[in-house]
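Bench notes, bay 3.
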Amino acid sequence: MKRRCLMVILMLLLLLAACGDSTATNSSASGKIKVVATNSVIADMAKNVAGDRAEIYAILKPGRDAHDYEPTAEDSKALAVAQLVLSNGLGLEAWLDKTVQSSGTKASLAAVSEGVNLLKTVQGETDPHIWHGPDNGKIMADNIAKGLAKVDAAGKATYEANAASYKTQIDDTSRQMKGLLDAIPAERRKLVTNHEAFTYFAAQFNLKIVGSIIPSFDSASEPSAQALTELVKRIKAEKVPAIFTETTINPKLAEQISKEAGVKIFSNLYGDALGDASSDGSTYLKMLLSNARNIANGLK
């Protein structure tokens, strides 16, 4: 009798173990993939393309500048368990390679700038701020879909459909931007910002970049006194209507130049990052429209 009872108990334990293994396997197969995006713009795009198939972690949170950022232990932990890392590339994330290496991650790496027609700044550097041209935003969405499908083949059709829908939204936003910017008179279509981040914006919407307070795509660079003097001369000679400051850069130097040049200041373009959840730049699409509206108002 005792032997029979022991046999029954053993069989029950084996059945429970088998059920446990089956549950674990199903849970793993149906779990969301873990994706790390280097900045808030790419993270927002990835959320739109991935839908509910992925968890998106942004290394750079809204309002944080990529040029002077130092990753944290939390970032390294997120990278260590990620299956996909989405970066901008083009020298924007100088800290990324070392961080990826130190995290020991086995994640697939995808640069969302692949296939973009790259443009030079006034100073002759390649401008990495590709997302300010909505046409580039559509290329980025496709690259994100490809990256996601590489690590989650079962979701390929979903990612492609989501990217197509998102690109339609980008096109609609682009049309709204064009409507705002087309109202700027030809002689006033001249742009001066905190740093050289709007090359693609200017190219797509037919604006002339006269210069920037920081003559580099790297907002951590420091302008020389001579460069600032030359900028004031160009602003006066070109009759630039306004100087635009950016949310992630201290506006004091721009305000000083505006006084010397005798032009007004328009604040809070979103250059290197999205704004917080309550701002006009809380998503990529909102950011594009907010920048267009701000620039149109400043140059009219």
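Next record in the batch:
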Amino acid sequence: MRRFAEAEDLSGVVRDALGGAAGMAGAERLRGGSKKGVYRVRLTGAGTPSVIVYSWAAEENFWPGGAEAEGADGTDPFAPASGLEPFLAAQRLLHALGARVPRLLLADDSRQRYAADVAVVEDISGGTLEALFRTDPTAARRALSDLARTLGLMHGAQAPRYGRVDLLERGGVALGSSCEQLVLDRALHDLAEAAGRDGRISAARGRLDDRLRTLRALVSPRTEHGLIHGELGPDHVLVTPEGEAVLIDIEGLMYFDVEWEHVFLRLRFQDRYGALARPGLDPRRLDLYTLAMRLSLVAGPLRLLDGDFPDREFMRGIAEHNLKEALALLP
């Protein structure tokens, strides 16, 4: 049985972040997190009504294997990214670029105040861009324009090596020989996993394998990579009252082919993607990465459902939708 944090558990780190005058009025665990706990802590006497606390306790990670999963050291860019170190590395780099992220109030890996690595950040009060699309389309358009500006800063930041930013910051080297080969290898692995869990993928496995290899053979080498979020849907963008787009869930920040980001943006933003599109993307990479992304969004949710992730119907829905889309990409 998983035990999540209560308000009193978090009181020490919050007071360290804001000062002893801060009073605790309650805490709630926000839904949706699969790798870390995200808590909104309501305050009194602190000059701000609430803050957000991130907890990287083992109980908060629903992925099979948790922090011990293969590639958790950051060498595999596609391994589930979690932890205070990748969070801080991403926070520093995005802030330096001028990309808006929640302001960091405290980072603590001492385990003295709380039995896990934690960070305290500002609470962005405007909600997610996803919600704003429904409630205030005009404000959402302004935030979408600001997100396009942020993506321009990120994708324009070039590096000769790909990999998660915390790994490269430590002088490490990512797995694989190129982005396109890494995507192919990962897609073949996802295909095998999905085929073992769903008969429709199993029946089409040979055709999907052939299609992936054919698309990979058409991609030419590249020596520069842009900075990408990796899972940038409208649910991972908060909006300030002033209309700024604020990136969250940034632990997977990496240098990679920007086409990988744009495939995900196109899937998640759908008819609104035009505001985020950019010229000069490689159409052959887009074709390979689209099929690979669909397979990833089948295998990943099915893998997560092997554990006790609570929002099971939501995950099943993601897998089912992307399974149908993957099969539709076959010639």
